[in-house]
Amino acid sequence: MLVVSIILLALCTASLAQIETEPEIAEATGERLDLRGAVPSQTVSRFITAYRDETRNLTAEDVLQDDIATMFQPVTTATPDFGYTKDAIWLKLAVRNATSGERVWRLFFRENFMQQFAVFTAQGDGAAKPLILQNELSPFSTRPIGYPELVVPFDLEPGEETLLLIRYESGGSSELSFSVETVDSFEAMTSRRTAKNFIYYGMVVLLCVIATLAFTVTRQWVFMAYTLYAASVLLFIVHADGNAFKYLWPNQPLFNAFATIPIGTALAVFCANFARVFLETKRYHPLMEKLLLAAIAAALLHLAAALFVDHQIIKKTLILVALTAILLATLSGFVAAWSRFKQVRFYLIGWTGALISASILSSRHWLGVEISEEVQFDSMRIVLVVDATLMGLAIWDNLNQGRKAQHLALKSSLLNAERNLKLTTRLHELEQQYETVLKLAQQKEHQIADTLHDLRQPLHALRLNVNNLALTGNSKADRQQIESTFGYLEKLVSGHLQESVSQLEVKGEGTEEDAAERDLKLSAVLSGIHEMFLPDAREKELDFRFVNSSLQTDADPLEVMRIVSNLVANAIKYTQEGKVLLGARRRGGKVRIEVHDTGTGMSAEEFEQARKRSKRLAKNSANGSGEGYGLSIVSGIAARRGYKFNRISNGGTGFSVGVTFPATAPASAEAASAK
């Protein structure tokens, strides 16, 4: 992968560069290093002898004594390294200036801070001259050269030799590598390092600014999580380079000695948190969510433990905590890639590189693998930039994949909505059709009920007439009454059959077209109805009277008969004693057929209720049988034909009702008008 290749290439390049700079810059003469120019740390280490002072009480003069001097042992590792120890470490280096012109030299240490640090030159009388004395209370300004890492100048004339003594105590690892530099080589090297460092810093700061702006605009928390993670890595590198002590807290040496712990904790916490937010482990990978939270808790526990536990132990174990957090972040990426590789591909590449860099650092401090500090931090710088770039790409790629997924989901949702709309439309059409069929069925049911209701009274009248015929003999009046009743029944049945077969609308239109051709004499219809219902009235001992009239109408005779017969039937049914009156009178340009009775009567509210289908008033329910369709049938026919059907106020007892029809002039009146 890209990051792995870059890191390996950087390591190989650094190693080759160090090997190529070693020849012809120093010459070993016994245990003395002859200086012919700048000497790298790996070469210097071959001439160093070391002694561990467990008491931490020895002075420079003490270690120059023969009894202690003989206890110094050669350094067998690439750089002096005694692990995490509380001992005071003494280093001796004998040097001779083998040049003809160099007089000022630099000891360049790859450390930004030591709790105790001192360099001496041995004098001929057994005394030692201090070149630098630093402790945990020394601010940055007390350094002889204001460089982020420890630099000690010393003078050595051409051909002159001296013994350098170095004493230090570390709050963390005791590894200490240093090189010998000339003024020119030091300036060139520090210029390159400063430029390299600040290029790295600038790139990461730029990415952090971009991520912060992206968070401000989009309110996506993944950008803020990334900013915190990148800032913690940047701060870790800045602190390791010594620039934090130089620029951020130069007057806080105690905090600088402690800063590795909170910065390392922040690195572990924000690393795991970024993995959680970016991969949405709580939603997709609950197990990895718990492991990442455990790593965060372990890092915070280390920070709290620093208040009670030795900082050296905390610093060493914190390396493993940070490695674990990075390992879990990488593992979470692999787990996520199993189901959604496209969304996490850049994340996976970036974290793989971070894991390699963290492994290099951990193997150096825990396994004793000899990797120079320069290589360690260069790998971190490379990973910092590449990882930051890839993480930025990962975020944008993830958002892009998310947008694509949302687009597909929206498209699918729109298709589903369109399909549901079509189904809803079809369902609505079916519901309308169902309502139409239901309405037609109800109309048919009402027609059948109306027909049965209309047939009941004529059949009853026919039965009575037949009985009378049997009792009184074959009278002409009875035969005419029976013939009239049969004629009404035939018309009624024929009309209902025709209405059942044809559409109501078509039938209605046809009736209106033929209306002008019809002139109905009301006397014939009303007299027939009077004769039809007279037996019923006599049976209840009611006085049923009919007022003859010469008025005419163009209304349908069958409908007039249905309307009037229902009104008369109701009047007889609900009148217990007294009389019933049937007649017609002119009202303006129209004619109104009226039925009056001396029954119980009803109020306007009761009349409106009785007009509704199957609504019978409680006070009338005991006075007659039937379904209560009479007034509703009349109301339906009147509403359909535009006739006025209303209750007539008679100012007394009983009930009066009328239906108003269009009136036509008698034929004699028309002829007289024509003359």
List the keywords.
single chain; 675 residues; alpha+beta; Immunoglobulin-like; Rhopdopsin 7-helix transmembrane proteins; Heat Shock Protein 90; 3 domains; 8-stranded mixed sheet; 7-stranded mixed sheet; 18 strands; disordered N terminus; disordered C terminus
Polypeptide structure, described:
The chain has 675 residues and is an alpha+beta fold. The chain folds into three domains: 2-185, Sandwich (Immunoglobulin-like), CATH 2.60.40; 192-403, Up-down Bundle (Rhopdopsin 7-helix transmembrane proteins); 503-674, Histidine kinase-like ATPase, C-terminal domain (Heat Shock Protein 90), CATH 3.30.565. It is 60% helix and 16% strand. Strands 1, 2, 3, 4, 5, 7, 8 and 10 form an eight-stranded mixed β-sheet that branches. Helix 1 packs across helix 12 and helix 13 (373-472) packs antiparallel against helix 14. It starts with a helix and ends with a helix. The model is unreliable at 1-30, 503-517 and 667-675 (pLDDT under 50).
